[in-house]
Structures are given as C-alpha cells and as structure tokens.
Amino acid sequence: MTGHMEINGYTRVCGLIGNPVEHTMSPVIHNTLADIMGENLAYVPLHVGSGLVGDALKGAWALNFLGLNVTVPYKSEVIPYLADIDALAKRIGAVNTLVRTDNGFKGYNTDMPGLYRAMCEDGVNVEGEEVLLLGAGGVARAVAMLLCEKGAESIIILNRTEDRARKIADEVNGYAGRELVKALPLSEYGRIPDKKYLAIQATSVGMSPNTEEAVIEEEEFYKKLHTGYDLIFNPLETRFMRLVRAQGGRAFCGYKMLLYQGIIAYEYWTGRSVSDELAGRVYSEMLRKIKA
User: Fold this and answer.
1) What is the CA radius of gyration of the chain?
2) What's the angle, vertex CA 169, arms to CA 69 and CA 78, rounded to 5?
3) Is 75 among the residues known to form the active site?
4) Residue in 58, 75, 150, 289 annotated catalytic
5) Any bridge partners for residue 97, and if so which?
6) Closest by alpha carbon to 47, among 7, 15, 11, 82?
7) pLDDT tens-place string over residues 35-76
C-alpha cells in the first residue's frame, strides 16, 4: 500500500527515536497516511544509542526534520532538550511527539489523547464512570491524569505495592481538588464495592512472551467489570481480556491507542485532520502487517 510517494527535494522527513526501534509499527501508520492523503512526507525509525538524545535532536533540527516521535527509553530524557512543552505533556512528565517550531522542537504527549480517542471510537465512556486502574507505573499515572481531566466519577488504583498507588492518588487528588482517587493493594480487591466498573489494565503483565498471565486471575474480580481496557497490544487478545469476556464484560486492547497516538502526531505535523474512515483504513493496514 505504501511506496507510491516519490521521494524528492521537497520530501519532509519525520522519524521515531528510541532504543530499540526495530519492531515499531509507526512507519506503517505515518507512511500509509502520507500515501493516502498525498502528503510528501517520509517516516523512518531512528535507533539512538544511550546518552545521545541531545545530539539526536540537534541533528534532526539541523537536517530540517518536520517532527519526531519518541519512544522507550527517552520519553522523559528528551524533555531538557526541547524549546517548549505542552501543558499535558509537562504534567504527565513524558513526551512522545516533537513538532518543529521556529526555535527548536515543542514536545507533546499524544499517548493519552490517543487512548481517549481510541476509547471513544470503541464506544467506551469515561465521563461519570467509576474506574479501576491496574498498575502504578508511569503509564498508570498518565492514565489517572487523563481520567481526571475527562471527568471520571471515581478512580481506584490497584497495585502490588500500595505506596506507589497512593503517591499517584495524592498527586491527582491535589490536581483535581477533591478525593477522586483511592489506592488499594491488589490483594485487597475484595474491598471494592460491588458495582460494575470500567477497568484499565496499565501494567506490562500479560505482554508477549508471557501471554498466559494476568495481573488478577480470580473471576470474582471480573464479575465487577462491565468493560476491560488493556493497554497492551501484543498479543491482540490478552488473558486479562479473556477473563473480562468470560464474565460477560466487553474487552479491548491497546492497538487502537497505538493507532491514534500516531494519527494525532501526524495531525500536529501536517496541520491536517484524519477522519475516522481514514483511521479505519490505516488500522486495517496495521492489522495486516502484524499478522503477516
């Protein structure tokens, strides 16, 4: 599907910096979009070695790159080298998209808006919802910020070590100005009131190659869920998702989040908006590539 675009003196280059970048799906997203939309843009993965992030940004700037994505392990490390940073990215403390400005790159976080757009597209509501958030790492912290911003009714963070969950709860509550978030150790999920919740799985448990694991195995827990959203996308169906479905809940994986974080980055770089129909075509191309 890609490859119709002629690379010439007018081609704008975007790329992904990270370590490793060998298995990224991002070129599929951006080159497919450029192709369909007739944008003279080429997107390449760029392997940046440890300690070279500042040099990489200087180089990309000097080479007139239109923009960059940033992946593991540089999402926070890149921040001191930016000319400017978006408020949401600053609050999350992680940047995954850099946009060229007159005096350097401006950093954004499209992961969380990408998750939100994916959830909307999947028909998963956040506003007014009571949410269970599994995990208390950087991703969970960002998700808690997003849920707060999008009007969730309440959030319970479940984590192996309660301390980390409490730290995020305190921080988000300070930002919300009310007790929006509570923290609980995973082992005490039985204390959660019997209602139906939206659960967001924000740990790496169940990610390939350990696909037969879930952060909570007991079906008692899954009876409390109407929807389970797993941020993992490899495999496309996790054990967590199967456990949710076994109790009659709806379950989704993080692959659409990956799609939409890319789409939002593309929109920043080109100033054009990508329709849901077009997003669907890119998604089909991603699925074709992952199964190839």
Assistant:
1) 19
2) 20
3) yes
4) 75
5) 69, 108
6) 15
7) 999 999 999 999 999 999 999 999 999 999 999 999 999 999
